[in-house]
Write a structure and sequence with these properties.
The complex is a heterodimer of chains A (about 475) and B (about 500). Helix content of chain A is about 65%, strand content about 0%. Chain A is mostly helical and about 475 residues long. In chain A, helix 8 packs antiparallel against helix 9 and helix 12 runs parallel beside helix 15. Chain B has a domain of about 160 residues. Chain B is about 75% helix and about 0% strand. Classes of the chains: A mainly alpha (about 475), B mainly alpha (about 500).
Chain lengths: ~475, ~500
């Protein structure tokens, strides 16, 4: 932000600080109503960040963001009122205070209303958790500046939604009541559908931030799926995936941001050979991407391992299969980025049929009607397609290089940090290192122990 | 002394209102200090009264010492005390706005104080005919104030308001006549008992209910009886818009609640379900239709006026559900809406004077040029949408909780959806204020706007900004007063609600 001399920095940083405060408020809330208050404040304080660019596209994304998240907020409010009503008797007040294992009074409540309350709460939090079909604000919100996408849309906002679902599952309804009501299976089914579908969509996204957005949608559903399986290990895995995904996705977004700032490249098809220009960044990217796919030694492996164990213990083979298939899809959409960064060059790269050809693959006609823009990055200079112009579009790309490799190929900046400033490299490498630590020594890194303590605290759940 | 407080609340402003007219023989600029002094006294008395009711319960006063129920009785319970305190505080606060925004004649301040008289009287009275008298005082003062704008459209708006408002008041009077014919009394407490004795199914009682409630809903401006409101709000001078939008419909809605709970009682609503459901249905339609009309407006002030139609739907829905929780919610939203809507109108005045922008498109990019006004507007707009922890959220929470406890699910859905409907029109404005390219640039507006810029004075005074900021702060800070209000209401209202 500061490096690029952006406009309206006061508003930006004020809103950023307010978002952080609200996110902390969400985390520290002791009951549903307080959680709702901060959940709404988070919406309000992130809106200026999403709309920061003041372009038509950013405004449209902001409108969509507000409409989706306030819609979700209304559902949460409805669910909260219902819980308050169901836990009270007649006109006397109820409670929405979080109780490990669920609020006792809900177990005896009218099942239909309890199901309605659960559906409202999960749908409301599911908007920010980007459960399909309520996910479409997330890719659009990627017009925001990269730090916003990274910190807020990979961490604070989406995690507040997932966190809300976790609270609802663990501390409001509790695994036992959920199983009695029969609401666990639908939630798991939605999550499994989301994680597969989002992965498939991500395969065909050429804009790096958009591909990461769909990857986020998919990974968030791992967490929700872990929670919905209601098995001890799955709960551990789901909760552990919250920090694990945060570190990995932060690395990925920081990488995307660094690539953007340094080379103004946003499209994956322009990134062939970028490994020589930004070696450290791309190594970190590779590490985090491997973690996303669940390769051992990175954080993602540990959490996914627990989720799959949980799925198998509960006998839900379908969900275990969905997790494995999604892992393969993760590799399918992340590996080409890493591969072409190091093993291809702007002059010599392989065809990308999945990206460029029409669905079905019967004909070699270019997907965008013969416009060579996708395969020849420099032709892009004349007419950047709307999705190529992100938040810097109107300020810089008019008079600067338009993304993709320079005419004489990427320079070789070496492995000592010549690729960017250490202000950008340090966070990237730190986040990547943390995700490695979480994957190699999970018992020493605190998160697993916290999560196990949380789950063993639940009555009736065996880890 | 405490027993005399209710009557003093009426006497002080009406006497104060006569003074500027006399004083204009000496100076035509003396209205403001006189009004300020009067309202300061009024506010102190109202605060005292609210405190007394909060600690000691309901206060009665027999006007002129005539025995109740033959004489006029003034009754102040938690609900009336809260409304009186609101009237005083808003009237006093808006004086700071009126000092620069005008109109500046002494006649204006006389009418202003007369309006305060009418509003205070409606809030404290315990007599249905006396309520009509104050309703008319309020109405006449409001028509005059709307007409005090300089454009011809103000006169037309005032005429429209006069005709429709008088029809509403006449309907109410007709209803009072039916009640008098059937019971022989006008005292609210006395009426409640006698109506119950006659039987709620009596055609005369039903007719009286329909006429009185119908008349008051005109004054509240529920859809489809709202047509006077947008014109009156949009064409009146800024001070008047803020004042009447904050108070006139609010006190009319209070009167509606008073008629529902003190005259006809909750038992009537239970015994005649069609009355309750008609009112609830009307309120729900009002919520949806008001919002839909608000979205389609291009003038910001008209949008705010239609927003009132929608918000009063919420309030009336809360009153008609008539459980303690819902009534507390309706009261909180009634008071909160007054502060928020008054503040929003004040903010539109500030923005228009500063930049000439008065339409939705004109608001584009004004966040940078009118930072205080735009920030106040945005905070108030979000509070109105019901973003916690603002007062708009608290009121809605209680009303929704009341509806859920009464298990009226369709109403719950409408109430929850009202958040999104409100968002639909306010998000548009907030987005334009901060994230759009300006359509009006500095210097362009001098010809059209700022007609009051007399000699070098900035068109916007610190006092005006203070009103906007104060309303925005109150919209959040009032939440702290809700527990005390709930306590007082639940102490003074159960006799009304649990009969």
């Amino acid at each position: 932000m500061r490096g690029l001399n952006e406009h309206a920095q006061t508003r930006y940083f004020a809103a950023f600080a307010a978002s952080l405060a609200s996110a902390i408020g969400v985390a520290f809330s002791a009951n549903l109503l307080t959680l709702f208050v901060f959940y709404e404040l988070l919406t309000v304080s992130t809106y200026p960040l999403v709309t920061h660019d003041e372009t038509e596209q950013a405004r449209a994304a902001g409108r969509k963001y507000l409409a989706y998240t306030f819609g979700g907020g209304v559902a949460v409010l409805g669910g909260t009122v219902l819980v308050f009503f169901l836990t009270g008797t007649g006109m006397t007040g109820g409670t929405t205070a979080f109780t490990p294992g669920g609020i006792a009074a809900l177990a005896n409540a009218d099942p239909t209303l309890a199901r309605a309350a659960f559906a409202l709460l999960v749908a409301g939090f599911g908007v920010k958790a980007a459960l399909m079909p309520m996910h479409s604000w997330l890719p659009d919100a990627m017009v925001a500046p990269t730090p916003v996408s990274g910190l807020l849309h990979a961490v604070a906002v989406v995690k507040s939604g997932v966190f809300g679902i976790a609270r609802v599952v663990l501390d409001v309804f509790g695994p036992d009541v959920m199983a009695d009501l029969g609401v666990d299976l639908p939630l798991a089914a939605v999550a499994a559908f989301t994680l597969l579908t989002a992965s498939v969509i991500a395969l065909r996204k050429d804009n790096l931030k958009r591909r990461l957005a769909y990857s986020t949608i998919s990974q968030l559903s791992y967490i929700v799926l872990g929670l919905a399986l209601l098995e001890g290990p799955a709960l551990v895995g789901g909760l552990l995936h919250i920090p694990a995904h945060a570190f990995m996705k932060l690395t990925l977004f920081f990488c995307a941001g660094a690539i953007h700032v340094e080379t103004h490249t946003d499209d994956i098809s322009d990134m062939a050979g970028i490994g020589t220009r930004m070696p450290l960044t791309m190594v970190a990217f590779g590490v985090a991407a491997a973690g996303m796919a669940g390769i051992p030694l990175v954080a993602g492996f540990v959490s996914k391992w627990y989720i799959i164990i949980g799925a198998l213990e509960g006998g839900s083979l379908v969900f275990a299969a969905a997790l494995l298939v999604s892992g393969v899809l993760n590799i399918a959409y992340f590996w080409p980025i890493v591969y072409q960064a190091f093993f291809e060059s702007p002059d010599s790269y392989d065809e990308k049929p999945l990206l460029e050809e029409v669905l079905g693959g019967r004909t070699a006609v270019r997907a965008d009607g013969g416009d060579e823009a996708v395969t020849e990055p420099d032709a892009d200079a004349e007419m950047p397609r709307p999705e190529h112009v992100d938040h810097l579009g109107k300020h810089h790309e008019d008079h600067e290089h338009h993304g993709g490799p320079p005419a004489d190929g990427w320079d070789d900046r070496g492995w000592l940090g010549g690729e960017s400033t250490w202000f950008m490299l340090a966070p990237i490498l730190t986040a990547a290192t943390l995700s490695l630590l979480l994957g190699t020594v999970p018992d020493t890194a605190v998160f697993l122990r916290i999560v196990e303590a949380v789950v063993t605290g639940l009555p009736g759940v065996v880890v | 002394m405490i027993e005399q407080l209710p009557v003093l609340l009426v006497v002080v402003p009406i006497v104060g209102g006569a003074v500027p007219l006399v004083a204009s023989l000496v100076s035509n600029r003396s209205g403001w200090p006189i009004a300020a002094l009067t309202l300061a006294v009024h506010t102190a008395l109202a605060g005292w009264l609210a405190w007394a009711v909060g600690t000691g319960g309901t206060i009665d006063y027999a006007v002129g010492g005539f025995a109740i129920p033959y004489g006029i009785e003034l009754v102040v319970d938690g609900l009336s005390a809260a409304v009186v305190a609101l009237v005083s505080a808003v009237a006093l606060g808006l004086l700071a706005y009126a000092r620069r925004a005008g109109p500046r004649s002494n006649a204006f301040y006389s009418q202003y104080l007369l309006l305060v008289t009418g509003l205070s009287g409606m809030a404290v009275t315990g007599d249905v005919f006396n309520l009509y008298v104050f309703l008319e005082i309020t109405g006449l003062a409001a028509y005059g104030l709307v007409a005090s704008g300089r454009e011809a459209s103000s006169a037309v708006a005032a005429l429209k308001y006069l005709i429709i408002g008088t029809v509403g008041a006449s309907l109410y009077l007709l209803g009072v006549g039916y009640l008098l014919a059937v019971t022989g009394t006008l005292n609210m407490g006395d009426l409640a008992g006698k109506i119950a004795a006659i039987g709620y199914g009596s055609p005369l009682v039903l007719t009286a209910f329909a006429l009185m409630v119908g008349g008051l809903t005109v004054k509240v401006a529920l859809f489809p009886l709202h047509t006077w409101q947008p014109d009156a709000y949009a064409n009146a001078p800024d001070t008047v818009s803020a004042f009447i939008s904050a108070l006139v419909s609010t006190v009319a809605a209070y009167a509606l609640a008073r008629v529902l709970f003190s005259v006809f009682t909750v038992d009537f609503l239970t015994a005649v379900p069609v009355a309750r459901w008609t009112l609830v249905g009307l309120a729900c339609v009002s919520i949806v239709a008001g919002s839909a009309l608000a979205v389609s407006q291009s003038s910001v002030q008209r949008m705010l006026a239609y927003s009132s139609v929608s918000q009063f739907g919420l309030v009336v829905a809360g009153f008609a559900i008539a459980t303690p929780t819902a009534v507390v919610g309706a009261t909180v939203h009634l008071l909160g809406h007054a502060v928020m809507k008054g503040g929003l109108f004040a903010a539109t005045g500030v923005i228009e004077r500063e930049t000439g922008a008065s339409t939705v498109n004109g608001y584009a990019g004004m966040g940078g040029r009118v930072p205080v006004g735009a920030m106040g507007f945005s905070v108030l707009a979000l509070a109105m949408v019901g973003v916690p922890p603002a007062i708009g959220f608290v009121g809605k929470w209680y009303i929704v909780l009341g509806a859920v406890r009464a298990q009226i699910w369709p109403v719950v859905v409408v109430l929850l959806a009202s958040t999104l409907l409100t968002l639909a029109y306010f998000a548009k404005l907030v987005e334009r204020l901060y994230f759009a390219e300006p359509t009006i640039y500095e210097g362009e507006d001098d010809a059209g706007a700022a007609p009051v810029a007399d000699g070098g004075d900035s068109p916007v005074s610190t006092g005006m900004l203070a009103v906007v900021v104060g309303a925005a702060v109150l919209a959040v800070a009032l939440v702290a007063a809700v527990p005390a209000l709930e306590q007082t209401l639940l102490e003074t209202l159960p006799p009304l609600l649990d009969q």
